[in-house]
Specification:
Length: about 140
């Protein structure tokens, strides 16, 4: 069985160890990032939704950074939201601080009833820039 190439950011190890998962795994030129929540260093949820969303993005960015990526490398996003009818406007007011400019990544939003005390979770797939920058070439006829 092949070993997983796991990426761990600085800190927050309690959450990953307690729940038995890896923050991200590198495979085939991509980084698959586990769902990131707005947890404090000890793994507990931030009580304020706006702060929780900011912290989820900060935690996501820490995982991306540990793998040599930024949010610009993200190609696919899945967000999970508890009670989206009540919470989505607050969440989307924070997103532009981290999201960047168009073109945006692909997005799937899922309304859920439970996230273990959290109200927002973000999971992404990013391309590994070092892999793609060394393997992408132009088409011979320069048409693409």
């Amino acid at each position: 069985m092949a070993m997983r190439e796991v990426v761990f950011p600085e800190g927050r190890q309690d959450l990953y160890n307690r729940n038995r998962y890896s923050p991200a795994v590198r495979a085939n030129g991509f980084l698959f990032v586990s769902g990131q929540v707005g947890s404090r260093e000890d793994g507990s949820p931030e009580p304020d939704l706006t702060t929780q969303v900011r912290r989820a993005f900060e935690n996501l960015n820490a995982v991306l950074f540990a793998a040599g990526c930024t949010f610009e490398d993200v190609v696919d996003v899945t967000v999970f939201v508890v009670d989206p009818e009540s919470n989505l406007e607050t969440i989307w007011s924070v997103v532009p601080e981290f999201w960047g400019d168009a073109p945006y990544p692909a997005l799937t939003g899922v309304g859920v009833s439970w996230l273990s005390g959290f109200h927002f979770e973000i999971k992404v797939v990013a391309r590994l820039p070092s892999v793609f920058s060394s393997t992408i070439t132009k088409c011979p006829d320069d048409s693409v």
